[in-house]
Design a protein that fits this description.
The complex is a heterodimer of chains A (about 80) and B (about 200). Chain A is mainly α and about 80 residues long. Chain A has a domain at about 35-70. In chain A, about 70% of the residues lie in helices and about 0% in strands. Chain A contains two helices and no strands. The longest helix of chain A is centred in the C-terminal third of the chain and has 40 residues, at about 35-75. The two termini of chain A are about 55 Å apart. By secondary structure, chain B is mainly α. Chain B is built from eight helices and no strands. The longest helix of chain B has 23 residues, at about 25-50. Chain B is globular and about 55 Å long. Classes of the chains: A mainly alpha (about 80), B mainly alpha (about 200). The interface of A and B includes residues 34 and 49 of A.
Chain lengths: ~80, ~200
């Protein structure tokens, strides 16, 4: 990734950036179960989302078919 | 300026493979993606919403990413895509909660910690907490660009991708955010060793 040139910083801006790097050096602690809980939530949500998505697809397909049938049933419209 | 974390092609390839495996249903691959990107996601979330709520926002961001993986096209690094989701999750979180009462007069009154940490570590922690309180005095937009650029060392391009803004806007926002941050640092008695 090419980096656009950084305009030269004022001394105060450089100092501020230095202080912010200090902030960036610290990662807040999270629960030791962070990843395990997240993966479990993902597993549970997927168990619901996949059938729901399939059901949504089925409903959409039925709706499309019904609209098509209704249009076909009306025969050719007036020009 | 800090050395920017490299957008390592090897890491991007690994990410792409893990994303593909996750999309095929391998939760173990998702777990690896989470472990790999958790630190940066938590840091960015923490600097936008505060450390106390960073874990919830990070979980929300990863879950959003999990459900939207089929939208990831791979034309930008996975980290940028994930941080964009994190940024949006953090802003949504801020939108749902009442704004912090940020009083510039009280920004510098650190709570006195009864901790018995070694003095230098304690001093460093207090400095960082003071800086985080200052950051919370900025608007979320200004806070975000400062954190992504100066704290995380991301490129302008990556920040533009994450914040969904043109690079020119990112640079302008960053300039204003730095000026505002410097004014806030100068507006109190703590010596931040800022040149005049």
């Amino acid at each position: 990734m090419s980096e656009p040139s950084e305009p030269s910083l004022e001394p105060a801006e450089s100092r501020a950036a230095e202080l912010l790097r200090l902030v960036g050096s610290q990662t807040p602690a999270v629960s030791s179960r962070f990843t395990a809980e997240l993966v479990e939530r993902a597993r549970r949500q997927r168990a619901v989302a996949v059938p729901m998505r399939a059901l949504g697809g089925l409903v959409a397909a039925i709706a499309t078919a019904l609209v098509g049938a209704a249009r076909g049933g009306r025969g050719p419209g007036r020009p | 300026m800090s050395a920017h974390p490299p957008s390592s092609t090897a890491q991007e390839n690994d990410d792409a493979e893990l994303v593909a495996r996750t999309a095929r249903g391998e939760l173990g691959a998702f777990e690896q993606l989470v472990d790999r990107h958790r630190p940066v996601v938590v840091r960015v979330a923490a600097r936008i919403v505060g450390s106390d709520e960073a874990e919830d926002v990070s979980q929300d961001a990863f879950l959003r990413a999990f459900h939207r993986l089929h939208h990831f096209r791979g034309d930008a690094p996975f980290r940028s895509w994930l941080l964009r989701i994190t940024h949006n999750a953090a802003l949504d979180h801020l939108g749902r909660r009442r704004p912090d009462p940020v009083d510039p007069e009280t920004l510098d009154r650190a709570e006195q910690s009864p901790s018995r940490e070694p003095a230098d570590r304690l001093e460093m922690r207090e400095r960082i907490e003071r800086l985080e309180r200052k950051l919370r005095g900025l608007s979320p937009q200004h806070r975000t660009v400062l954190v992504l650029r100066d704290a995380e060392g991301l490129s302008y391009e990556e920040i533009a991708e994450i914040t969904d803004a043109p690079i020119g806007s990112v640079k302008g926002r960053l300039h204003r955010a730095r000026s505002e941050f410097i004014q806030m640092l100068r507006a109190n008695t703590y010596d931040w060793e800022l040149p005049g």
